[in-house]
Amino acid sequence: MAVLEFKNVSKSFGDGAERSDVLKDINLAVQEGEFLVLLGFSGTGKTTLINLMAGLEFPTRGDVTFKGEPITGPGPDRGVIFQNYSLMPWLTVNGNVSLAVDTMFPDLSKAERAAKVEHYVKMVGLGHATGRRPAELSGGMRQRVNVARALAMDPEMLLLDEPLSALDALTRANLADEIEGIWDADKKTCVLITNDVDEAILLADRIIPLNPDGTLADAFDVKIPRPRDRTAMNNDAEFKRLRAEVTKYLMDVGIEAKAEGTKVLPDVTPIHGVPAAVAEAQKGMIDERFLDFSQLHKIYPTPKGPLTVVEDFDLKINRGEFVSLIGHSGCGKSTVLTMAAGLNPISKGAIKLDGRHVEGADPERAVVFQSPSLFPWLSARENCAIGVDKVYPKASQAERQDVVEYYLERVGLADAMDKRASDMSNGMKQRVGIARAFALSPKLLLLDEPFGMLDSLTRWELQEVLMEVWSRTKVTAICVTHDVDEAILLADRVVMMTNGPRATIGKITDVKLPRPRTRKALLEHPDYYTYRQEVLDFLEEYEHGAKPKKPAPKPIAAE
Question: Is the full-model pTM beyond 0.70?
Fold first, then answer.
């Protein structure tokens, strides 16, 4: 039986020339007890759709009903969990959950209300933190309070608007498992908005993508038996088939929408071939052991004595190789990267690049961080040109402009070179960051979770952009990531780090998948899930703070 229905619903904002059509002709029936997942790119109207369900927005045209009655506003029968926590900072965990209980159940005795609060706080695993305030909680714990507060209202339906997107991968996975457990125990109707395909398949009975034009795609039915184990699913034929099918659909509609929206600047002529200044800068480098980490240590002084964060990190990387560095939070991945960049002093051991010791920052080692740190008042072109002007002092102004425009075009910003950084989306800013790094013609490209702040689908798009540009330059690169698929997609070798402190290399996997690579092609490659399983098994072994049973063998240089 349908508990919530959309009939010919459209939603627009603004009037006249300012009018924006967000949703168009939506017909949807959510069944009682169903776990429905809505999946799509940023800006496709997912949040607007859930706001209509919650009664926080109303349709421009059409009808939205709950149990046959028009939705006229928010109600206790529909509990909403947003991406942002919105907790009262002066109240404890129990205090924040009590707000909901006291509002919804004023007729219960004080003891009964307290028992209800305790029940839901324990349900989300925060029984040990009842007296803590939000400032004393991690992001994952704050979101758990948010979940407990919504559940404590005992709604008939849970509406979850990207509740996990701001969390790290491990916390996100654990909380997704808890949400599934709560749904399974209470059999509440759930609607989840996400941009993560794996999360969608893990949780959903049905997955419905939102198209970029504001319409709904046909639903994908998820027929994988419950309970679903995320590691076991890696070997499930139905999971692989569905994952490839949903990914292909989203990539196709995303790329198609982007192509249709591309403008051509009349003054810009596409540049073919690497600019002469770039080719000149890349001459005369050694090939084997081009980058050499030798018994690298990082030790920080603390009041309790020296703390060794990274120890005996030994790795030899050949020129033109792409290495992914993966491991759990706190394992020292970014520490290794910042030492290679010359931004963090080496405590012991050495790093040599092209035969010379790394000492201090240098444009020959370009870094792309999670946040690209652009000058907000400068355009994409101007942000990119700052480093180029310094790196090519002997080049003419025209040649330097040539370099800037070449890489901005390569990352898909041909029609936005003169747009100010302050007017760009996060995805566009990161495109500028990537272009700026490549434009320096570095000997070494260092990427520190470059897509970590972006939604999954924008991340896919930029991974393809990165691979396309890298395939033209073959610059030696290291990418720090916590995303298993990203690590395999990008790399010639995946280097896995043990947990910190005293983190070191635990395992190295050679990825012998064909290049050039695309996500769609790799998902269909027979060896892809074997590589994925290797990395997943390693991460699972170290998931709960495990330490190696015996010292890992010293990795040898790449062939």
Answer: yes
